[in-house]
Amino acid sequence: MAGTHTRRWPKRLLTGAGLVAAVLLVLALGVAAWVWVHLGRSLPQTDGTATLTGLSAEVIVERDAHGTPTISGASRIDVARALGFIHAQDRFFQMDLARRRAAGELAEILGRTALPTDRASRLHRFRDRAARVLAAASADERAQVEAYTAGVNAGLAALRAAPFEYLLLRATPKPWQAEDSVLVIASMFFSLQDATGTAEARAGALYDVFPAPLAEFLNATTSDWDTPLLGDALPAPVPPGPEVFDLRTAAPVQEPINGGSAVPTLALDMTEVEADSRGSNNWAVAGSRTADGRAILANDMHLGLSVPNIWYRASLVWTGSSGRPMQATGVTLPGVPSLIVGSNGTIAWGFTNTTADWTDRVRLTLAGDDHTRYLTPDGPRSFEVTQETIAVAGEASETLEVRGTIWGPVVGPDTQGRLHAIAWVAHHPEGLNLRLSAMENAASLDEALTIASLSGVPGQNCVLADRDGHIAWTVAGRIPRRAGFDGRLPASWADGTRRWDGWYSPAEYPRVVNPDSGVIVTANNRVVSGRDLERLGDGGYDPGARGRQIRDGLLAIDRADIDDMLRVQLDDRALLMERWRDLALSVLTDTATTTPGRQQFRRLLQETWTGHASTDSVGYRLARQFRLTVAELALAPFVARVRTLEPGFPSTPGRSLEGAVWALLTHRPAHLLDPKYADWPALVLGAIDRTVTALSADGRRPGLDARTWGEANTLQAQHPITRAVPQLGRWLDLPRQPLPGDSHMPRFQSATAGASERLAVSPGHEAAGYFHMPGGQSGHPRSPHYRDGHDAWVRGIPTPFLPGPTVARLVLRP
After folding, report:
1. Euclidean distance between the first and the last CA atom of the chain, given in angstroms as a whole number
2. d(Cα 83, Cα 70) in Å, to the nearest integer?
3. Is the pTM value of this prediction over 0.90?
4. 424-478: per-residue pLDDT in tens?
5. What secondary structure does DSSP assign to 563-601, as a single string?
6. Residues 773 and 313 sit within 8 Å (Cβ to Cβ)
């Protein structure tokens, strides 16, 4: 009996375990079903009718098969109200994060992990500044923002449940305020400009450590790729002579302060991120060079990629103030009521970041031993002290003290105990405003050029095309009038000889209209020379290879059409990297190729080089990483010296590595060579050895010959939630897939950044244009439009610029 009873226990245990498993499965399915149903409650309304209080007449929202809306209303104010409604229903969480990013309020919903970002943002006190921007706005601008704000709150309230992110965060969305739209614009300043003058501080450190000619050389942004739009090319930098600085006789590097490392450590974890890796292309081709006589505008703005995409497509239709029917189509920025880039049938406009200098570091002088006051041209003045309260989800709030000056907020002290104030265009109502919305109504190139010059946006290259075949370029964004200095280095403004003396007028802005070449191209490179360059300053220009490749590609086309624009945007030829490949092969002679690693490196460079940044190319990846490693080794003795003063100084000290490093390799100055190497070819061989080690000695399988560019350049576009909860990535993120392209070619692509949109359009002939963007229109994972445009963006398949046939129709009634 006992034996029989004992034998029954396993069966009972199995039966009990099965029951528990079944119960858990039912519970899990129940929870999943509840979540699925709850998620569905926050989907937007796309059909039928809805009430939108404040409209003067009905507004019709027609969506095509990709969820792109055409919003038709009696007035632009009504359209703004409706745009706010659908932005909130499709993208409210994205809008919320953008306003919180600028205001320093992320920790309120994301918790203490967001505190460092919030502290950095609160330095600039943008919520207070946004209120001042609204106060200075025109009546029409305020009316549009207020209508949009009301639409946002109505759209949010009309959802049957809050957007799904708030369910996961256990948070409640806050209503939209008019100043929040200004904050969303401010968030773009953070993305596109140097909010604390870091590059200027690093340049200052170079001048603190080295003689001026050597500091100038190391900090140069010119190169032999220089391709300006206006004026002459600047010469590539030339290494200074041994009378300026000689590593062979220089004193040994002293141990750094604050426990830093004197010798730079190469990034053998292979993050493969380049300091001057950035992007955005735009260009215009005049009617004189096109097949049909129409001007073509092309634009692909390169930004960090996330889910949902930063832009939201829309076509806006209304009756203008003169009674003329208006339609403007392109991309909007959720949180803002106006079109950012697009075409209104008469004018098409597009942007790239200027990478000019929009921030200055003002070195402060304290009033003797009184640390509460600083010197100004009008004598000593007390710091303005503000207590900023930062709310933290689930914890007590944090109080942050922010000090301000007449020039801007205070940062520091630095490692030498110095305080600086930050002067930034974004701190001023002139530099941050809502005037870009007027571009939707621009009726001529002259009008559009003036609107661009007065717009308070992060300084952009604004390229224009009109329906008569003309093209133009200018700078969008306010340009400060520097007096007494050029803005490259931190400087004291205490005696009044250095200052910002107001703003340049539109008549003083650089402009190009209908150049003889029939082509205008900008790609974050230096576009001006002479006096215009003095006005814009140098914020770290791209070397120019990308811009030159685009320009030469366009000029090689006899009669261009829309399809040619896409071919140029997708051009991934590795023109800049070719000479680095050739350099590596030049030192890999039979006598130097003495190790298996060097032999394999040479073979792969020769046999797998495709001439493109293609996903299957091992040769491209080797050449690219070799270039970065050469730069680190060549600059290491200089970086080590700066790190004795600034321990956190980066391994490539200048604003662009291409010019200075290539000059060292071309001129081969013995006095600027790290003494550990016998000659410059030895350093190059050392870089090859380091590259082989980095790519093959970290346990990855199967070996160096499998290290394709696609393996490194695999898209990682995440939803903000999955950065904290990676397990949700399969539902929320874009597919991880290898992509061609890189930073110094038209098809800009990295793992986390790339073309946030691609378009080409002829104003007045929009039906022939095309458009791409990663992801889809919706920010909701249950929507069919969450990822539905993504494949076309990946594969470069043209899709129409204008919305397609209507598949859903929503009537918004007063």
Report:
1. 83
2. 10
3. yes
4. 999 999 999 999 999 999 999 999 999 999 999 999 999 999 999 999 999 999 9
5. HHHHHHHT--B-HHHHHHHHHHHHH--TTT--SHHHHHH
6. yes
